[in-house]
From TrEMBL:
<keyword id="KW-0949">S-adenosyl-L-methionine</keyword>
<feature type="region of interest" description="Disordered">
    <location>
        <begin position="1"/>
        <end position="48"/>
    </location>
</feature>
<dbReference type="InterPro" id="IPR015507">
    <property type="entry name" value="rRNA-MeTfrase_E"/>
</dbReference>
<dbReference type="Pfam" id="PF01728">
    <property type="entry name" value="FtsJ"/>
</dbReference>
<feature type="binding site">
    <location>
        <position position="139"/>
    </location>
    <ligand>
        <name>S-adenosyl-L-methionine</name>
    </ligand>
</feature>
<feature type="binding site">
    <location>
        <position position="163"/>
    </location>
    <ligand>
        <name>S-adenosyl-L-methionine</name>
    </ligand>
</feature>
<dbReference type="GO" id="GO:0005737">
    <property type="term" value="C:cytoplasm"/>
</dbReference>
<keyword id="KW-0808">Transferase</keyword>
<feature type="binding site">
    <location>
        <position position="100"/>
    </location>
    <ligand>
        <name>S-adenosyl-L-methionine</name>
    </ligand>
</feature>
<comment type="similarity">
    <text>Belongs to the class I-like SAM-binding methyltransferase superfamily. RNA methyltransferase RlmE family.</text>
</comment>
<feature type="binding site">
    <location>
        <position position="123"/>
    </location>
    <ligand>
        <name>S-adenosyl-L-methionine</name>
    </ligand>
</feature>
<dbReference type="InterPro" id="IPR029063">
    <property type="entry name" value="SAM-dependent_MTases_sf"/>
</dbReference>
<keyword id="KW-0489">Methyltransferase</keyword>
<dbReference type="InterPro" id="IPR050082">
    <property type="entry name" value="RNA_methyltr_RlmE"/>
</dbReference>
<feature type="compositionally biased region" description="Low complexity">
    <location>
        <begin position="1"/>
        <end position="28"/>
    </location>
</feature>
<feature type="domain" description="Ribosomal RNA methyltransferase FtsJ">
    <location>
        <begin position="69"/>
        <end position="246"/>
    </location>
</feature>
<dbReference type="GO" id="GO:0008650">
    <property type="term" value="F:rRNA (uridine-2'-O-)-methyltransferase activity"/>
</dbReference>
Length: 252
């Protein structure tokens, strides 16, 4: 899921270290402190490059400092600061939740641990539970997954989050199709659980959302847009689809 450069705004600062509606704190690092990793026996060039990137990534360092489970937590913080997805008392489903960075942010900003909101997360990978959330280890693509999530939520949701991604192959078209298949499954579920006025936030790849899926979402949401948070690595093709103002009374 470094040091952080404070903003000069007067916006409200969350306990996670970011501000809502008044600017955003962004981790930064000094060029003089760059860590260089030497290749070692048994380590491939790609793994050496990955390790060096992790050691020099200000978001990784800041996540560790704040006790966040992944640098990805900053992506959700930035999207929330910009689009106001999370509020105290909201009911949230987090798809593809492991290792729990997004779930942590959702719990904190809905105040679920204080009993105000509710957060349910699911991932096929083993992950440690997050205090204040119901954390399921299960394949979201399994036939019984939607029912399990609905049972854990105990009612409609105000927000469905999906940071799901299939393992990349390096073939751009194939990777795009795999991510879109997950996005379609996430939206199918969102349609079945979102309350009136709810929202949907889902990872897709650059090249945009497929026309058929985008058309379906636009039919049921008042606003639909794409955004790439600063915490998303520049070389990554990922962007996020934000759909807000769900119309629960419209048929599929």
């Amino acid at each position: 899921m470094s040091s952080r450069k404070p903003t000069g705004s007067g916006g409200r600062r969350s306990s996670s270290g970011t501000t809502r509606s008044g600017g955003r704190s962004a981790p930064t690092r000094s060029r003089d402190l760059t860590v260089k990793v030497r290749s070692a026996r048994g380590r491939t060039t790609s793994s050496t490059q990955w390790l060096q990137r992790q050691l020099n990534d200000p978001y990784v360092q800041e996540a560790k400092r704040l006790g966040l489970r992944s640098r990805a937590a900053f992506k959700l913080m930035e999207l929330d600061d910009r689009f106001e997805l999370l509020k105290p008392g909201l009911r949230v489903v987090d798809l593809g939740a492991a290792p729990g960075g997004w779930t942590q942010v959702a719990v904190q900003r809905t105040r679920a641990q204080e009993g105000q909101g509710r957060v349910v997360g699911i991932d096929i990978l083993p992950w440690e539970g997050v205090a204040g959330a119901s954390c399921l280890i299960h394949d979201f693509m399994a036939d019984d997954a939607p029912d399990r999530l609905k049972e854990a939520m105990g009612g409609p949701a105000d927000l469905v989050l999906s940071d799901m991604a299939a393992p990349t192959t390096g073939h751009r078209k194939t990777d795009h199709l795999r991510v879109m298949a997950l996005a379609e499954a996430a939206w199918d579920f969102a349609e079945s659980i979102l309350a009136e006025g709810g929202a949907f936030c889902c990872k897709v790849f650059q090249g945009g959302t497929e026309d058929a899926l985008l058309k379906r979402i636009k039919m049921r949401c008042r606003t639909v847009r794409h955004a790439k948070p600063a915490a998303s690595r520049p070389e990554s093709p990922e962007v996020y689809l934000l759909a807000q103002g769900f119309r629960a009374d419209i048929e599929k």
